């Protein structure tokens, strides 16, 4: 699809990553030019298909200033971050430095450039463990690990800059993002892969050994962790709505993005087997540090206020789309 010459630019940090690349696709469909700003530490140049790539690091303030000067974006979508719960628990300094330091540079560069609208990728990991209660936007944020803590800190920074510099933000707290672009132009490709659904699919396809289930002694109905899975295409559509919300001059707002339905790891395995026709070889291992037993979203606000309509977020659809993407061989295929 070709973009109009005067399509407004949106700076997409992390646009070469899983969620960012899908966001770039829907931004281009919505008439924006997504300008990816990514250091390619975990992302892929091959995932940048819908606009230019600035290969640079958010810890390099001069590079951010140069990107603002070159592209004059009307808004920023900030996805770039380290995002592994296990790694964050082992190396918290890395998460504080990279995620918070990078975001602060970006926010200060926005202010300096006169760009006032940010869509920020936060997480349900900011809530911590609340004994399985449905988490809505008012639930106290008590993160269990440095990943969640770093994202909560960035939310605080955005609120402070909202007061001091009229920076407007839409903060999305994601639950577990899964699936892939149904056209398989972009998809989920982490190396190493740590996320449940792609690992499960690789185990089902025989491209990796058995999946190890991280603990089966949680206080859930079958002992395995419960998560609320949301399709990446639905999630990024909410970002376009968030962008339009800010461009219409509406107030800064926090929205959860999930489905309100939780599935245990064992249930996801059963669905994967049903959806792919392949057995998922698996074994049981110890708990993973920093994991909450159950994280389920209350997402009424996004539906009622933003007009968000999730369309592909059934577990069956997410697994089918992830399976189709996996068949392409990903970015190294
Ligand atoms: N799991 C396994 N075995 C694996 C991989 C995962 O049992 O090989 C389990 C995890 O322990 C967890 C569930 O499957 O119970 C989901 O794990 P993911 O790693 O797929 O997702 P997380 O819930 O840990 O993390 C994701 C995102 C974070 C986000 C978080 C909120 O990666 O960015 O959801 O829960 F913050």
Written account of the structure:
With 333 residues, the protein is of the alpha/beta class. The chain has a domain at 9-179 and 229-258: NAD(P)-binding Rossmann-like Domain (Rossmann fold). Helix content is 39%, strand content 17%. It has ten helices and 14 strands. The protein has helices at 18-29, 61-71, 85-90, 92-113, 146-165, 196-205, 232-247, 265-276, 300-306, 315-327; strands at residues 9-13, 33-38, 53-55, 75-78, 117-123, 168-174, 176-178, 211-214, 226-227, 229-231, 253-257, 263-264, 282-285, 294-295. The strands form four sheets. It has a seven-stranded parallel beta sheet with strand order 3-2-1-4-5-6-11, with helices on both faces. A three-stranded mixed beta sheet has the order 12-9-14. A two-stranded parallel sheet has the order 7-10. β1 (9-13), α1 and β2 (33-38) form a beta-alpha-beta unit. α1 (18-29) packs across α7, α2 runs parallel beside α4 (92-113) and α6 packs across α8 (265-276). The longest helix is centred in the N-terminal third of the chain and has 22 residues, at 92-113. The two termini are 24 Å apart. The model has no long low-confidence stretch (mean pLDDT 96). The site of uridine-5'-diphosphate-4-deoxy-4-fluoro-alpha-D-galactose has 20 residues, from α6 and β8.
């Amino acid at each position: 699809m070709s973009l109009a010459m005067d399509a407004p630019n949106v700076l997409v940090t992390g646009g070469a990553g899983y969620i960012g690349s899908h966001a770039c696709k829907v931004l281009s469909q919505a008439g924006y030019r997504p300008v990816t700003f990514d250091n390619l530490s975990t992302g892929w140049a091959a995932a940048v298909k819908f606009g230019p790539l600035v290969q640079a690091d958010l810890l390099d303030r001069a590079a951010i200033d140069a990107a603002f000067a070159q592209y004059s974006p009307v808004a920023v979508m900030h996805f770039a971050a380290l995002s592994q719960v296990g790694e964050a628990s082992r190396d918290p300094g890395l998460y504080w430095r990279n995620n918070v330091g990078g975001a602060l540079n970006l926010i200060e560069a926005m202010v300096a450039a006169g760009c006032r609208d940010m869509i920020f990728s936060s997480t349900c990991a900011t809530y911590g463990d609340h004994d399985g209660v449905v988490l809505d936007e008012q639930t106290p944020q008590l993160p269990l690990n440095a990943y969640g803590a770093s994202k909560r800190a960035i939310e605080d920074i955005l609120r402070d800059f909202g007061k001091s510099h009229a920076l407007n933000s839409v903060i999305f707290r994601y639950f577990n993002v899964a699936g892939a672009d149904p056209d398989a132009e972009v998809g989920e490709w982490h190396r190493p892969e740590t996320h449940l659904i792609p690992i499960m699919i690789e185990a089902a396809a025989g491209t990796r050994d058995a999946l190890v289930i991280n603990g089966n002694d949680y206080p859930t109905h079958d002992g395995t962790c419960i998560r609320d899975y949301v399709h990446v295409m639905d999630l990024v559509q909410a970002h376009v709505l968030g962008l339009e919300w800010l461009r219409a001059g509406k107030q800064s707002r926090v929205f959860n993005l999930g489905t309100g339905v939780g599935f245990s790891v064992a249930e996801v395995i059963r669905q994967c087997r049903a959806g792919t026709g392949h057995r998922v070889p698996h074994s049981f291992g110890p708990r993973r540090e920093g994991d909450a037993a159950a994280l389920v979203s209350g997402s009424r606000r996004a539906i009622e206020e933003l007009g968000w309509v999730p369309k592909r977020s059934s577990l069956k659809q997410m697994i089918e789309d992830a399976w189709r993407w996996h068949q392409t061989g990903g970015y190294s295929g």
